[in-house]
Design goal:
By secondary structure, this protein is mainly β. The strands form four sheets. A ten-stranded antiparallel beta sheet has the order 8-9-10-11-23-19-18-13-16-15, with helices on one face. Strands 7, 12, 14, 17, 20, 21 and 22 form a seven-stranded antiparallel beta sheet that branches. Strands 1-2-3-4 form a four-stranded antiparallel beta sheet, with no helix packed on it. The protein has three helices and 23 strands.
Length: 307
């Protein structure tokens, strides 16, 4: 049975709790929206919460005097490829939402300057630890908009993300793209480069940023922390599709406070009134996260999770 109710949460103001008694998903409605809490019922929150508002950017250059963007934490929707300050819309206003039989639809204000309208829809299974998250971006402006739906799950510290590398036999042709950012060091001890998987562990003592992207043809990623596993399956990575960041449909990022597990849709050009949608399917389960970071253990964990 699904229960939906408003409730305050930490210093994020009013939020909407959706639970089936097995999993809990809490979404902000005074700001954002952000899926600010996600966990098995009675377990620790897997999402990063920026209580002290440490991660922020001044975006007054584009969005007006004293405007600031806050990460807040949790899961959010953006337009890729990333561009500053355009991407960092200060979504600090109240969110309109409507409940459904299995969840809710969240619609923030139409963005000024970019003329984008974002929408987040949550549909929870009544009796399984699963939920479907649908992300929609609509162009409400007069000019065409080109980009991808970018879905970022900002996960709490100390966890480990695992993504499968393409295994398709393409003969003499390449089958994978591994994309790195200027600040990424391949020798970073937080990363494991296996034959089948890339793994990345968050370490609060390592303050340097690290980011990697790839063409995730298995269209799945996992995050393990606090005795739980969070698995997201997302819309299929089309082999001949046009993806941002040199062909990335999945990206991992970590820094001092959190780890991001991201999925990205194909690039599309939207005319006025047109929309694009990207869907993730979430699954949670109990999982022992007390393992040493090496290729053998990563392979074992991935096999147990079925990714």
């Amino acid at each position: 049975m699904i229960t939906i109710k408003e409730m305050p949460y930490k210093n994020f103001g009013k939020c909407l709790m959706i639970t089936n008694g097995i999993i809990e998903i809490l979404t902000t409605v005074d700001v954002g929206p952000r899926i600010i809490k996600c966990n098995l019922t009675g377990k620790h929150n897997l999402m990063f919460n920026d209580i002290e508002r440490k991660v922020t950017h001044d975006v007054s250059e584009l969005y007006g005097e004293d405007k600031a963007w806050y990460i807040y934490g949790g899961h959010r929707i953006w337009l890729s490829p990333e561009k500053f300050p355009d991407t960092y819309y200060p979504d600090n206003d109240k969110v309109v939402y409507a409940t459904t039989a299995t969840g809710a639809v969240f619609k923030p204000l139409r963005q000024t300057n970019t003329d984008l309208q974002c929408e987040l829809k949550i549909e929870m299974s009544p009796d399984e630890p699963t939920a479907t998250i649908t992300h929609t971006i609509t162009n409400c402006g007069k000019k065409d908009v080109t980009g991808s739906v970018w879905c970022l799950s900002v996960m709490d510290k100390d966890g480990t993300a695992i993504v499968p590398m393409p295994q398709e036999d393409t003969g003499l042709l390449s089958n994978r793209s591994i994309v790195l950012w200027p600040y990424t060091k391949m020798s970073d001890s937080r990363a494991v480069w296996g034959d089948k998987y890339i793994a990345l562990r968050q370490n609060s003592e390592a303050k340097d940023a690290f980011k990697v992207g790839l063409n995730n043809t298995a269209h799945v990623a996992a995050y393990i922390n606090k005795g739980q596993a969070f698995i997201k399956d997302f819309d299929v990575n089309h082999p001949n599709g046009n993806y941002p960041d040199r062909g990335c449909s999945c990206e991992l990022y970590t820094a001092e406070y959190f780890l991001e597990c991201e999925s990205i849709s194909e690039i599309k050009t939207l005319k006025r009134g047109e929309s694009m949608t990207h869907t993730e399917r979430w699954r949670l389960c109990e999982f022992d996260d007390n393992f040493e970071l090496n290729e053998s253990n990563i392979n074992d964990a991935a096999a147990k999770l079925g990714i």
